């Protein structure tokens, strides 16, 4: 478990750092019209937005205090912000207390997501968000 914990925490920390770098880059380079540098493979290949398209603009809007605008760009932005704020705090908490509460939560959450009703509901929500992104023309 200790090796898994270390690997997971290193990966999650790396992802958070990459996310913060991406976010700060976009804060500095976002246009007044909300245009960002687009790295979405689905958007480039199929010319349609993916379910997470607009998440960066959503987070930037949240940081500016524009909650309605953030929800318009992509509701997943709220989830991402909560993760980007909570995850580093949780990792530090576990490291200081020599605990594995994040791993226990991760395992419990993964088990919950494997339940057909929960997985189906999650898939439907993501599909609805994807359709909405397509209709908005992101």
Q: What order do the SSEs take from the amino end to the carboxyl end, as H and E?
A: HHHHHHH
User: Can you count the beta strands?
Assistant: 0
Weakly predicted, low-confidence segments: none
| Helical/strand content category | mainly alpha
Mean pLDDT: 88
Share of helix, binned: over 70%
Provide the gyration radius in Å: 17 Å
Strand content: under 5%
Written description of the protein model:
There is one protein chain. 77% of the residues lie in helices and 0% in strands. With 138 residues, the chain is mainly alpha-helical. It has one domain. 11% of the residues are buried. The mean pLDDT is 88.
Index terms:
0% strand; 7 helices; mainly alpha; single chain; 138 residues
Secondary-structure topology with pairs:
Elements: H1 2-29, H2 41-46, H3 55-63, H4 67-73, H5 76-97, H6 101-113, H7 116-136
Helix pairs in contact: 1-5, 3-4, 3-5
Q: What's this model, at a glance?
A:
It contains 7 helices and no strands. The chain has 138 residues and is mostly helical.
